[in-house]
Amino acid sequence: MLGMFKRDPQKKLQQAYERKLQAAMEASRNGDMRANATLTEEAEALLAEIKRLESAQ
Questions:
Q1: pLDDT attached to residue 1
Q2: Other Cβ atoms closer than 10 A to 20
Q3: C-alpha 51: how far from chain center
Q4: What is residue 4's predicted lDDT score, i.e. its pLDDT?
Q5: Residue 17's closest CA among 5, 53, 33?
Q6: pLDDT digit string (tens) for 13-43?
Q7: Which residue among 5, 34, 35, 41 sits deepest, i.e. has the most Cβ atoms within 10 Å of its Cβ?
Q8: Residue 33: alpha-carbon gap to chain centroid
Q9: Helix, strand or coil, per DSSP, at residue 34
Q10: What per-residue confidence (pLDDT) applies to 8?
Q11: Are 36 and 27 spatial neighbours (Cβ–Cβ below 8 Å)?
Q12: Global pTM?
């Protein structure tokens, strides 16, 4: 019964991944390629974690 109140970690990671990609796109538009590369790398790490969780299920 209490399980329905638990947050889905995969959904939380997906939202963080989408926010990182959005921030990377905005950095790219502003000409900050270094921030774009950093944010894209962080987003890829989140995506790898999402895929790891999917394969564990």
A1: 54
A2: 20
A3: 11
A4: 67
A5: 53
A6: 999 999 999 999 999 999 999 999 999 999 9
A7: 35
A8: 19
A9: helix
A10: 82
A11: yes
A12: 0.83
